[in-house]
């Protein structure tokens, strides 16, 4: 037997080689965007978030926000660095307890370089300490942080998180949340989910909220101010928490007359969409100047302007319908927006019929007849409208018209099984328009490619034969020949753009 003699230098070199992971060369930066063609720089690659823990302090008088965000995630590739979407000023970042280097890039990217590279599949804890004045920050020429006379509100679409917490800001990366905010005594904090606790100390009160179901980042909301808070429980057992700014003025009565019906409307929608998917329901009406409502998960945001002309339960129906279509089942990519807005609008059509203010068929007839073939309305394809037209009226109205066409094609029995089954099929997950088509074909047993193509993916008005097939009996009538349903203006009031 001959021993192989290894020289000391060679031994050291071999030891060094063993110390270097074989995969070292594979460590690369995570992508600065998640890959959505509508918003290439939104979201980030290389990791998947499971939970956000946000511990904040806010001073309404100065709009100063301080915070520590702790993000639980898992890497999806061998990472040398990764991005977070964020705008405020960062003082420290730690990854798995060790200080990490960080810098900013582009208009809203925080680039984090861990002390040591991260293997694929590694659980990571990212802690970010930060501060700033959100109202002074902007990206791409806009700001989604809404100041109010007594505080501020974060509620916007498709982005709002950058102004108050670092995140992987795309609907495809959903997570649970703990949001704990300290504010001066006398000021209150509203957020998603359930209020876990309040505690006062040295002139400050801390409110701790928990969202225990997966939630997209744009659906996370924060409202700080002075509110009248009401609580109740629906007949179906859903706890309801609503809040109203104390300075809503003339809009106060109409806002309450609408939003206080949340429990009733959640139960009514459950009859169509299945069990309510979250631990609480409700909404809040702060004193803002915006003109839209937004389906912030389990705690809907309503602008006072929604109630300037009186009570409007239709807008409440629209936003609550999103709790199933948009919040429970979220879109895979922003091009799938029809799955949110088309179905929330159709819920309003169902409510209109329930209230005797126009049947779904009458509303479909009106939409079809009131837009001539050369109307730009028909150039927007609800199934993939493009980023510039994502919240156009056609996505809502033509989108709901497509759903009525689907109903006539598959029949009521299959249609209502589809409506109720879809939120359970993809509960707390993400899905695309293509996924929905496959599901509708599976439930109905009918091929639906031609129907989806005609109503969702062609930049032209569906021809009269297709309209007649959808039971649009007045398909070739002019707008003047089709009466406007009584509910129409209330339905349209819900479609104010989510824009910035």
UniProtKB/TrEMBL annotation:
Keywords: Hydrolase, Metal-binding, Metalloprotease, Protease, Signal, Zinc. CDD domains: M1_APN_like. GO terms for biological process: proteolysis. Its cofactor is Zn(2+). Residues 50-219 form the Aminopeptidase N-like N-terminal domain. It catalyses: Release of an N-terminal amino acid, Xaa-|-Yaa- from a peptide, amide or arylamide. Xaa is preferably Ala, but may be most amino acids including Pro (slow action). When a terminal hydrophobic residue is followed by a prolyl residue, the two may be released as an intact Xaa-Pro dipeptide. SUPFAM superfamilies: Leukotriene A4 hydrolase N-terminal domain (SSF63737), Metalloproteases ('zincins'), catalytic domain (SSF55486). The keyword Signal applies. GO terms for molecular function: alanyl aminopeptidase activity; metallopeptidase activity; zinc ion binding. Residues 309-455 form the Peptidase M1 membrane alanine aminopeptidase domain. Its EC number is 3.4.11.2. The keyword Phosphoprotein does not apply. Belongs to the peptidase M1 family. This is Aminopeptidase N. It comes from Streptomyces monashensis. The lineage of its organism: Bacteria, Bacillati, Actinomycetota, Actinomycetes, Kitasatosporales.
């Amino acid at each position: 037997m001959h021993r192989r003699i290894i020289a000391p230098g060679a031994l050291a070199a071999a030891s060094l080689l063993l110390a270097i992971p074989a995969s070292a060369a594979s460590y690369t930066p995570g992508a600065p965007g998640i890959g959505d063609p509508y918003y290439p720089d939104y979201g980030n690659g290389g990791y998947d978030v499971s939970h956000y823990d946000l511990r904040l302090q806010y001073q309404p008088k100065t709009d100063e926000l301080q915070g520590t965000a702790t993000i639980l995630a898992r890497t999806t590739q061998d990472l040398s660095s990764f991005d977070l979407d964020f705008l405020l000023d960062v003082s420290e970042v730690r990854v798995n307890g060790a200080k990490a280097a960080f810098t900013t890039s582009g208009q809203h990217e925080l680039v984090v370089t861990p002390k040591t590279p991260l293997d694929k599949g590694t659980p990571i804890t990212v802690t970010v300490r930060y501060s700033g004045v959100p109202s002074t920050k902007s990206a791409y020429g806009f700001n989604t942080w809404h100041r109010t006379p007594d505080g501020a509100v974060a509620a916007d679409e498709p982005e709002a998180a950058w102004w108050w917490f670092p995140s992987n800001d795309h609907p495809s990366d959903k997570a649970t949340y703990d949001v704990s905010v300290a504010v001066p005594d006398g000021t209150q904090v509203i957020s998603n989910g359930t209020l876990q606790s309040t505690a006062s100390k040295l002139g400050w009160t801390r409110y701790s909220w928990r969202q225990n179901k997966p939630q997209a980042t744009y659906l996370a909301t924060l409202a700080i101010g002075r509110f009248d808070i009401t609580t109740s429980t629906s007949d179906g057992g859903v706890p309801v928490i609503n809040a109203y700014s104390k300075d809503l003025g003339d809009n106060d009565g109409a806002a309450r007359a609408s939003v206080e019906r949340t429990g009733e409307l959640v139960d009514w929608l459950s009859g169509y969409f299945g069990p309510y998917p979250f631990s609480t329901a409700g909404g809040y009406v702060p004193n803002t100047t915006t003109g839209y409502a937004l389906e912030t998960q389990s705690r809907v945001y309503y602008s006072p302007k929604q109630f300037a002309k009186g009570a409007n339960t239709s807008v409440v129906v629209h936003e609550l319908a999103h709790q199933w279509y948009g919040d429970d089942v979220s879109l895979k990519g922003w091009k799938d927006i029809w799955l949110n807005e088309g179905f929330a609008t159709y819920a309003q059509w169902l409510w209109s019929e329930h209230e005797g203010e126009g049947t779904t068929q009458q509303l479909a007839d009106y939409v079809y007849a009131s837009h001539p073939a050369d109307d730009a309305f028909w150039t927007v394809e609800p199934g993939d409208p493009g980023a510039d037209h994502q919240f156009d009226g056609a996505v809502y109205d033509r989108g709901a018209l497509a759903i009525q066409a689907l109903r006539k094609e598959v029949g009521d029995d299959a249609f209502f099984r589809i409506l109720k089954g879809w939120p359970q099929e993809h509960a707390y997950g993400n899905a695309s328009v293509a996924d929905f088509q496959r599901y509708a074909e599976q439930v109905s047993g009918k091929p639906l490619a031609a129907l989806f193509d005609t109503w969702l993916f062609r930049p032209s008005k569906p021809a009269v034969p297709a309209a007649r097939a959808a039971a649009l009996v007045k398909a070739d009538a002019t707008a003047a020949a089709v009466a406007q349903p009584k509910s129409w203006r209330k339905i349209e009031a819900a479609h104010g753009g989510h824009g910035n």
